[in-house]
Amino acid sequence: MHFMTALGAAWQQRNSLLCVGLDPDPAKFPAHLQGRPDAILAFCSAIVDATADLVCCFKPQIAYFAAHRAEDQLEALIEHIHARHPGTPVVLDAKRGDIGSTAEQYAVEAFERYKADAITVNPYMGRDSVDPYLAYPDKGVILLCRTSNPGGSDLQFLDVGGLKLYEHVARLVAQDWNASGNCGLVVGATFPAEIARVRELTGDMPLLVPGIGAQGGDVAATLAAGRTAAGTGLMINSSRAILYAGKGEDFADAARQAAIDTRDAINAHR
Ligand SMILES: O=c1ccn([C@@H]2O[C@H](COP(=O)(O)O)[C@@H](O)[C@H]2O)c(=O)[nH]1
């Protein structure tokens, strides 16, 4: 199924714009999982099973798996999501960016090895570095635009001929790169004014919005700036605030409650 079709269905059927980010840090795992060789998979699967009915997508961040030589557990986790929670899109947060021949390998890794439904990509090496991902028309290609970190302003706020660089990226992607209708953009919840500007430039393009929860982004301002007329258009990510809501054996129940609270806080402003 096309990523955008699956995302649209998840928004409607789950009545949720919440994306749960899967950033497993073994140092923060509850004691009973510590030391298990499959701890990352066990932790993430429990979070997924506890929250799947509350989300429009999951976003595993590849660094948290690769850093612990746990790519096999990432593969198994995505297989688990597709098998147990069909119709739940998986956005692989990899922020890839390289010349075309290398990008082809990254695209195979994301879409064929991991079977992700979408990937985050850094657009700053230009169109030919993104084409290998766009060549999979059913897969989502979510390009960094206005990132949530303070240092994002160093480059993304530069003036490039009357527009800020992030505005240029938003317009370029919306008007040129999105021929297959499979592009989205990353815009941080920490910058609601820029969410509004990106929404203005891109129509109803889906926006992946990290930065609520641990980074302190404002939910109400995010919704006011970024929701579409249909009250959707956003994948609002929270990772640490949900994953580590509890520290004990009931960590998945605590994560579920945190996800319910976050989904409801988002829905209160749709
Ligand atoms: O601009 C960006 C792009 C990506 N991220 C990623 O989102 C999550 C945020 O985690 P929290 O614990 O909810 O802060 C993480 O995987 C980042 O790599 C981002 O924060 N900002």
Automatic annotation (TrEMBL):
Name of a matching Pfam family: OMPdecase
Coiled-coil intervals: none
Q: Indicate the enzyme's highest-level EC class.
A: lyase
> The organism sits in which domain of life?
Bacteria
Leader peptide range in chain numbering = none
Entry keyword set: Decarboxylase, Lyase, Pyrimidine biosynthesis
Q: Which GO terms describe its biological process?
A: 'de novo' pyrimidine nucleobase biosynthetic process; 'de novo' UMP biosynthetic process
Domain Orotidine 5'-phosphate decarboxylase residue range list: 17-255
Catalytic residues at K95
> Matching InterPro entries, A to Z?
Aldolase_TIM, OMPdecase_AS, OMPdecase_type-2, OMPdeCOase_dom, RibuloseP-bd_barrel
EC number(s) from the headed UniProt entry: 4.1.1.23
Recorded hits in PROSITE patterns, A to Z, give:
OMPDECASE (PS00156)
Q: Which reaction does it catalyse?
A: orotidine 5'-phosphate + H(+) = UMP + CO2
- Give the metabolic or biological pathway: Pyrimidine metabolism; UMP biosynthesis via de novo pathway; UMP from orotate: step 2/2
* Molecular functions per Gene Ontology: orotidine-5'-phosphate decarboxylase activity
What family classification does the UniProt entry report for this protein?
A: Belongs to the OMP decarboxylase family. Type 2 subfamily.
From the Swiss-Prot or TrEMBL record, give the protein name: Orotidine 5'-phosphate decarboxylase
What organism does the record attribute this protein to? Parazoarcus communis SWub3 = DSM 12120
What gene name is listed for this protein? pyrF
